[in-house]
């Protein structure tokens, strides 16, 4: 009997430790775990931010997930399994459920759990903290009955291996974030990876330089924001939209004095695609910050189209918006101050503005 238990526990160990690295590995591990614990199904559930982050259960009808969300099954007052949550790695089973049912649970959840063969079983919290709870459960139908001591022993052994696999998945997500910002380092781009909480998970060297120079951006308690209070609120709103699923956001932080001194900063925010097995560790948003002076000249094309400028005029307008002085622009373009002045007058006329400061504000708005 002991040798059989050891063999089955070894099979579960191998399956979980391979799960982060193999295609469909988590499904295979959960299927095997269910069989070895005498259960209909095994479940890996992630809760955070008062919602379900993931709910992995192999071979379950999609209607299950829809129904679970519809009845708000992540809420402890609805779901007595959640209400029964104990300490990390504490194994809970039917005796704990009997107690939790006395003060938690709804008729909708009872109907839901019976329909999907999850009345009995075991569970434990693998990871708890930082706004995240990752739980492992075995689900048994009424026909299969309550778990026995051997089932609970094998569940406890499997939970140890599942925790190791979840931690490996977390480490791989962090390594992936580091490799991503490393790629941006190679091309000198200021990039910030934002996690699901809105905190910076990783940043490139160029990004570190931007937040360290006392300029337009700062890091405060691990969160990215604009240094000036009037610029920070709209930036946080743009970040929130990106985190909530908007594919791409742009936020322009004008230089001090409405762009008349120094240069502004363009922050482009990209919602990152979620992987099939996303445990809540992966970054959610990529923020690329570009100083106005570094914005690629490809910006000239839309500027020409919007204002009806020539290529040369669009380049001059962009450099004026970047805060460059007339003398510097003339010198780098190899023209006289008089010629440049004539070109600027043409730009102002075509843009229907009277002053360079108005042109700067207009160009900045177009770049958002």
What does this structure look like?
It is a single chain. The protein is an alpha+beta fold. Helices cover 47% and strands 19% of the residues. It has 14 helices and eleven strands. A hairpin with a 2-residue loop joins β3 (120-129) and β4 (132-140).
Which secondary structure elements does this structure contain, and how are they paired or packed?
Layout (H helix, E strand, L loop, with lengths): L1 H17 L6 H12 L4 E8 L2 E6 L5 H9 L9 H4 L10 H7 L6 H9 L4 E10 L2 E9 L8 H38 L3 E5 L5 E4 L1 H8 L4 E4 L2 E4 L2 H15 L4 E6 L11 E7 L13 E7 L8 H8 L3 H11 L4 H8 L3 H15 L4 H12 L1
Helix pairs in contact: 1-2, 1-7, 10-11, 11-13, 11-14, 12-13
Brief sketch in words of this structure:
This protein is of the alpha+beta class. The chain has helices at residues 2-18, 25-36, 62-70, 80-83, 94-100, 107-115, 149-186, 205-212, 229-243, 300-307, 311-321, 326-333, 337-351, 356-367, and strands at residues 41-48, 51-56, 120-129, 132-140, 190-194, 200-203, 217-220, 223-226, 248-253, 265-271, 285-291.
């Amino acid at each position: 009997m002991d040798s059989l238990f050891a063999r089955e526990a070894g099979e579960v160990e191998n399956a979980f430790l391979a799960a982060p690295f193999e295609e469909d590995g988590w499904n295979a591990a959960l299927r095997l775990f269910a069989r070895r614990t005498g259960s209909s199904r095994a479940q890996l559930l992630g809760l955070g931010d008062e919602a379900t982050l993931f709910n992995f259960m192999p071979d379950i009808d999609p209607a299950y997930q829809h129904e679970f969300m519809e009845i708000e099954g992540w809420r402890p007052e609805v779901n007595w399994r959640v209400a029964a949550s104990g300490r990390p790695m504490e194994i809970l089973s039917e005796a704990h459920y009997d107690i939790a049912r006395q003060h938690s649970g709804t008729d909708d959840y009872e109907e839901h759990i019976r329909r999907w063969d999850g009345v009995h079983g075991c569970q434990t919290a693998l990871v708890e903290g930082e706004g995240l709870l990752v739980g492992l459960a075995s689900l048994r139908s009424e026909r299969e009955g309550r778990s026995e001591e051997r089932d609970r022993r094998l569940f406890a052994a499997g939970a140890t291996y599942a925790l190791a696999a979840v931690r490996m998945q977390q480490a791989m997500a962090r390594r992936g974030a580091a490799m991503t910002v490393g790629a941006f380092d190679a091309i000198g781009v200021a990039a910030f990876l934002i996690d699901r909480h809105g905190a910076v998970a990783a940043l490139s060297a160029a990004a570190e330089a931007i937040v360290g120079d006392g300029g337009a951006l700062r890091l405060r308690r691990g969160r990215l924001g604009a240094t000036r209070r009037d610029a920070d609120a709209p930036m946080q709103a743009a970040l929130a939209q990106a985190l909530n699923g908007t594919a791409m956001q742009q936020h322009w932080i004008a230089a001090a004095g409405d762009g008349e001194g120094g240069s502004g900063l363009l922050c482009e925010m990209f919602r990152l695609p979620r992987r099939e097995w996303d445990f809540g560790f992966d970054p959610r948003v990529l923020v690329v910050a570009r100083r106005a002076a570094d914005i690629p000249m490809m910006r000239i094309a839309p500027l020409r189209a919007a204002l009806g400028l020539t290529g040369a005029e669009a380049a001059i307008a962009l450099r004026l918006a970047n805060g460059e002085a007339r003398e510097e622009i003339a010198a780098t373009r190899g023209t006289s101050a008089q010629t440049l002045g004539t070109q600027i007058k043409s730009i102002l006329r075509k843009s229907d503005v009277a002053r360079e400061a108005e042109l700067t504000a207009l160009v900045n708005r177009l770049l958002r």
